[in-house]
Amino acid sequence: MIAIREIIALTALNFGFDARDIVADNRTTPVRIARHVAMYVARKTTPHSMEVIGKAFNRDHTTVIYAVEKIEAEIRADPKLKALVKAIARNVEFRERIEALGGIDVLPLARRIAADPVRRAMSASVMEVSALAGTMLDLWEIAQAAEEAIRLRERVIAITSDEVMTSALMEEEDATSARIAALETAILDEMAALRGETPEEEETTDGRCHS
Question: Where do the Chromosomal replication initiator DnaA C-terminal domain residues begin and end (predicted)?
Answer without folding.
Answer: 3-71
